């Protein structure tokens, strides 16, 4: 609880209307899109300017009050649950695109700008900002940067990290620094820009970002390939990459996922197929033509039962949007949907799919799988009911085994959703104790009082659980 | 709120709320950008669908008490249900909202005046068509007798809040009691018979908006329908259902089911999106009454909006014409989000010769009318309306077409508020279609007359 005089200090900085303390407000900011995590903050504060951010942070640091920065609260790793109370810091007023620089091909923006709005603004000028997480209609750029989000176009164009050129950051002590800039090259000191990308609000607050843009690709073609079995689809993915083609998009959906997505979108998806691949190539017309022809023949060589081409951009967009709804659509089947984010080297994708099926069977849990197959990033999603304690134990064991398998195949516990509170207990699986230790020293250096998003990234004691509430 | 009241509400939340439906929300936030109150409140989660569902769940879970702020969040909801079609999990938000509001209102100590007004309106007025006619007659007396002129000139209107003043201005000149009482109950098609339909006339539509109802039956006749208008029908009950008066809503549903059961018809036609959406939901309303459920579902399956039946019968292929002008369409939330009828009105409007149909940005976003929302949540309603007017102005349309009486009044209010009443008009789609039909046919018959001379 914050005392009355403490709230007055905050109100003096950001204005009374930008400090909320009602229990209803606290409740609606007590969770994000991660199941099973909820904790009440003490206040919700919405600074109007970067300068106000700095004042709030400085004061909170002096008082040792935890700060949980929050964009749109769509993250899937409990990154914005205020586990230790404190202040939820909203970015909703920092929502302006500051400049689109057509000479340097950059956009400079505040963190609270909606991802899709930013994309549309640059596209209106013939430019292209590729990172397109499925949540882009809702998520903010600040959230994307802090989770280093990927999307459907990640295979060819990379993830958010590949587009962040410079940042303005308010450090936990309230000081403001600028890193990078509109420079193609810059080796002055440590690369703090990269450090802050994916830092999940644990090192400071991002108040401005300069992002790289590229020219809009000339054309785009979209293909849907249907399979009788999941392995054949997974093999196709590996074959396409091995044949030195990098499609813009290479997405995988299994049959249960196709069915729920079709229930929602009603666009005539092939619900009889055991698995489908959604493949896109963009770029120069001649190259696209050639690549797509080759991709189609690889699909056919690998037992695709049908390969069809989207007839128009409207049809292609309907397919993409259907794919983006996959996770939420799966939620219609069972009360609790727990999704994972294990990622392996591309060449191992078939092995990983096979392993997921085996693990689901072994622990008798229902797992559906979809994801960015081309990136080796699958989202095995467990459909369960949090009220069934016995089943939740088995879910927990299944996920632990999936993580271990992913790491053994040369992969990682999370490809794009971040560690947050949810995967903190498993960080050591990927990094080892020395790796976690190195990261903790970085955290300690920036945030000695541990006020920035405490309880995220690093677990207090090593073995907590992912899905079973303590 | 008193502690005892809160405890009662909390307990009933635990007993009555559909917990599986609450759990069905996986908190992805996909619904946020479609929610008008979330957008207009400067992205406040407490005024978002995800936030409201979380609040309901938290009350059931005992994490929070159902205090004033929780109630505030639910009161601010328009009930437009724009959050439903965009929800991949298929959360039926409308049902959750109805359950929650019902519990809160039934248990709340209301102030005496509020109680009296609610009782008068919900039990004394809307269920009784004769009384509706009586009240509308009074308004007519006010409008025609010279009282209105006196009221407006004397400055007495200034005593009312701004939105009420505007509302008084935009209320259409109502029909005389005589014409309302002599409503015709049976119509033959003017062309060979294609469908037999019953017309759900609606309480407000068959009084204040009687000419629009007359236009509706005319269009149906031109399209080849034989029409019956069952006398025993009542108000649909939507206003009650959405304001936490569920028992009264159920009573009216039963009356309507009985009234239409006898008729041998293909469809039951409505011309008010708000009513139609409530009528198609009778099955849910009466889900706990085994002897009614199947009858309710049979009733609901026949409900069809006027624009949808017109398209089915190929009305858009008939000659339709208007003067050169731009027209635009404001979706009725419930027609679009619940009845899923949104292509049909556009198809009809695009087929009018001379008129150019221009889609406004966010045509599917609520106009802020929402039943009695504009009277009780005036500030938010007006903010939403201002946004809507900006979008309509950008289309340069001279005519704003609507498909529900509430939207129609709200758009008129918007036009009045912007001081554009001499340049822009708002109409119900059936009135415009009739105008276009008659216009085309009179030109046509004039031409054929002259050629025969
Ligand atoms: C249905 C669904 C689909 C999704 N699809 C994808 C996908 O395809 N790819 C993908 O990568 N992710 C996906 N996500 C996860 C999520 O949407 C992304 O992580 C997104 O980037 C989060 O953005 P946000 O604005 O909601 O951030 P939030 O969830 O609010 O915050 C995310 C993190 O960033 C921190 N933060 C936010 N703003 C700032 C700031 N200005 N300064 C410092 N820290 C800050 C927070 O503290 C938190 O740790 C999906 C989520 C859902 C629900
Ligand atoms: S209502 Fe649907 S769209 Fe909205 S947060 Fe819940 S699951 Fe997502
Ligand atoms: S019904 Fe309308 S106002 Fe209410 S939560 Fe849904 S979208 Fe928002």
Tell me what you see in this structure:
- Chain B: It holds the Pfam family CCG.
- The complex is a heterodimer of chains A (470) and B (453).
- Chain A is α+β, with helices and mostly antiparallel strands.
- Chain A contains 15 helices and 18 strands.
- Chain A is 36% helix and 20% strand.
- In chain A, strand 8 and strand 9 form a beta hairpin.
- Chain A starts with a helix and ends in a 24-residue tail after the last helix.
- The model of chain A has no long low-confidence stretch (mean pLDDT 94).
- Chain B has 453 residues and is of the alpha/beta class.
- Among the domains of chain B are: 105 residues, Alpha-helical ferredoxin (Fumarate Reductase Iron-sulfur Protein, Chain B, domain 2, Orthogonal Bundle); 126 residues, Rossmann fold, CATH 3.40.50.
- In chain B, the strands form two sheets. Chain B has a five-stranded mixed sheet.
- In chain B, helix 10 packs across helix 23, helix 14 crosses helix 17 and helix 18 packs across helix 20.
- The termini of chain B are far apart.
- Chains A and B meet through helix 2, helix 9 and helix 12 of A and helix 2, helix 4 and helix 5 of B.
- Bound molecules: flavin-adenine dinucleotide and iron/sulfur cluster (2 copies).
Give structural attributes.
heterodimer; A: 470 residues; alpha+beta; Uridine Diphospho-n-acetylenolpyruvylglucosamine Reductase, domain 2; Uridine Diphospho-n-acetylenolpyruvylglucosamine Reductase, domain 3; Alpha-Beta Plaits; seven-stranded antiparallel sheet; five-stranded antiparallel sheet; 15 helices; 36% helix; B: 453 residues; alpha/beta; Fumarate Reductase Iron-sulfur Protein, Chain B, domain 2; Rossmann fold; five-stranded mixed sheet; four-stranded parallel sheet; 24 helices; 55% helix; 9% strand; globular; disordered C terminus; binds flavin-adenine dinucleotide; binds iron/sulfur cluster
């Amino acid at each position: 609880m914050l005392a009355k005089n403490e709230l007055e200090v905050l109100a003096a900085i950001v204005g009374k209307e930008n400090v909320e303390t009602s229990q209803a407000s606290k409740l609606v900011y007590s969770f994000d899109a991660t199941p099973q995590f909820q904790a009440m903050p003490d206040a919700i504060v919405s600074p109007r300017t970067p300068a106000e951010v700095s004042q709030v942070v400085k004061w909170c640091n002096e008082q040792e009050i935890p700060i949980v920065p929050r964009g749109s609260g769509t993250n899937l790793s409990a990154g914005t649950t205020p586990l230790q109370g404190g202040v939820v810091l909203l970015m909703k007023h920092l929502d302006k695109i500051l400049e689109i620089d057509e000479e340097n091909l950059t956009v400079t923006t505040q963190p609270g700008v909606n991802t899709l709005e930013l994309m549309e603004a640059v596209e209106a000028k013939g430019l292209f900002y590729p990172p397109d997480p499925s949540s882009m209609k809702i998520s903010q750029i600040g959230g994307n940067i802090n989770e280093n989000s990927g999307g459907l176009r990640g295979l060819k164009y990379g993830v958010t990290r590949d587009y962040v050129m410079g940042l303005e950051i308010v450090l936990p002590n309230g000081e403001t620094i600028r890193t990078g800039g509109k420079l193609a090259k810059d080796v002055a000191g440590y690369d703090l820009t990269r450090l802050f990308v994916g830092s999940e609000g644990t090192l400071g607050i991002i108040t401005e970002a300069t992002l790289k843009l590229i020219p809009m690709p000339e054309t785009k073609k979209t293909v849907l390939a249907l399979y009788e079995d999941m392995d054949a689809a997974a093999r196709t993915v590996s074959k396409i990459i091995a044949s030195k083609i990098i499609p813009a998009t290479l997405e995988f959906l299994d049959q249960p996922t196709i069915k729920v997505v079709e229930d929602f979108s009603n666009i005539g998806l092939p619900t009889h197929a055991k698995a489908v691949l959604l493949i896109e190539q963009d770029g120069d017309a001649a190259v696209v033509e050639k690549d797509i022809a080759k991709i189609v023949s690889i699909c056919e060589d690998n037992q695709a039962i049908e390969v069809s081409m989207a007839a128009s951009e409207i049809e292609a967009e309907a397919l993409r949007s259907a794919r983006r709804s996959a996770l939420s659509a799966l939620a219609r089947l069972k009360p609790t949907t727990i999704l994972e984010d294990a990622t392996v080297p591309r060449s191992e994708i078939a092995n990983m799919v096979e392993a997921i099926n085996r693990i689901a069977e072994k622990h008798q849990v229902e797992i559906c799988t979809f994801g960015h197959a081309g990136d080796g990033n699958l989202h095995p999603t467990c459909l369960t009911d949090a009220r069934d304690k016995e089943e939740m134990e088995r879910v927990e064991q299944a996920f632990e085994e999936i993580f271990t398998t992913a790491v053994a195949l040369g992969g990682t516990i999370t490809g794009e959703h971040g560690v947050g509170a949810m995967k903190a207990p498993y960080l050591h699986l990927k990094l080892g104790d020395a790796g976690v230790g190195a990261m903790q020293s970085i955290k300690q250096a920036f945030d000695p009082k541990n006020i920035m998003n405490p309880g995220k990234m690093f677990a207090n004691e090593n073995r907590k659980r992912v899905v079973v509430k303590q | 709120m008193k502690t005892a009241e809160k405890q009662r509400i909390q307990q009933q939340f635990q007993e009555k709320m559909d917990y599986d439906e609450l759990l069905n929300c996986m908190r992805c936030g996909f619904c946020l950008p479609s929610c008008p109150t979330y957008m207009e409140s400067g992205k406040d989660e407490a005024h978002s669908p995800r936030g409201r569902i979380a609040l309901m769940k938290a009350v059931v879970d005992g994490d929070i008490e159902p205090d004033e702020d929780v109630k505030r969040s639910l009161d601010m909801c328009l009930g437009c249900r724009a959050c439903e079609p965009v929800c991949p999990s298929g959360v039926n938000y409308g049902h959750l909202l109805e359950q929650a509001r019902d519990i809160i209102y039934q248990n709340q100590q209301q102030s005496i005046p509020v109680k009296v007004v609610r009782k008068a309106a919900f039990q004394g007025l809307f269920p009784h068509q004769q009384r509706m006619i009586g009240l509308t007659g009074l308004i007519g007396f006010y409008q025609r007798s010279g009282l209105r002129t006196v009221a407006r000139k004397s400055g007495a209107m200034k005593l009312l809040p701004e939105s009420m003043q505007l509302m008084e201005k935009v209320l259409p000149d109502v029909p005389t009691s005589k014409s309302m009482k002599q409503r015709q109950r049976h119509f033959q098609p003017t062309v060979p018979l294609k469908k037999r339909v019953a017309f759900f006339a609606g309480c407000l539509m068959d009084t204040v908006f009687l000419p629009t109802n007359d236009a509706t039956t005319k269009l149906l006749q031109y399209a080849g329908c034989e029409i019956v208008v069952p006398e025993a029908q009542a108000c649909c009950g939507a206003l009650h259902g959405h304001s936490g008066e569920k028992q009264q809503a159920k009573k009216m549903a039963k009356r309507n089911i009985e009234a239409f059961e006898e008729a041998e018809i293909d469809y039951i036609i409505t011309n008010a999106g708000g009513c139609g959406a409530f009528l198609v939901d009778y099955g849910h309303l009466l889900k706990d009454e085994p002897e009614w459920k199947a009858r309710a579902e049979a009733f609901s399956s026949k409900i069809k909006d006027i624009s949808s039946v017109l398209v089915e019968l190929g009305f858009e292929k008939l000659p339709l014409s208007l003067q050169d002008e731009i027209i635009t369409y404001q979706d009725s939330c419930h027609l679009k989000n619940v009845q899923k009828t949104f292509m049909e009105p556009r198809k009809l409007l695009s087929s009018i010769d001379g008129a150019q149909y221009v889609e406004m940005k966010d045509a599917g976003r609520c106009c802020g009318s929402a039943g009695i929302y504009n009277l009780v949540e005036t500030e938010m309603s007006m903010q939403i309306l201002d946004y809507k007017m900006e979008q309509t102005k950008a289309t340069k349309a001279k005519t704003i077409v609507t498909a529900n009486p509430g939207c129609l009044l709200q758009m008129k209010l918007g036009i009045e508020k912007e001081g554009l009443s001499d340049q822009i008009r708002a109409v119900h789609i059936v009135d415009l279609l009739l105008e276009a039909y008659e216009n085309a046919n009179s030109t046509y018959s004039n031409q054929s007359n002259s050629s025969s001379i």
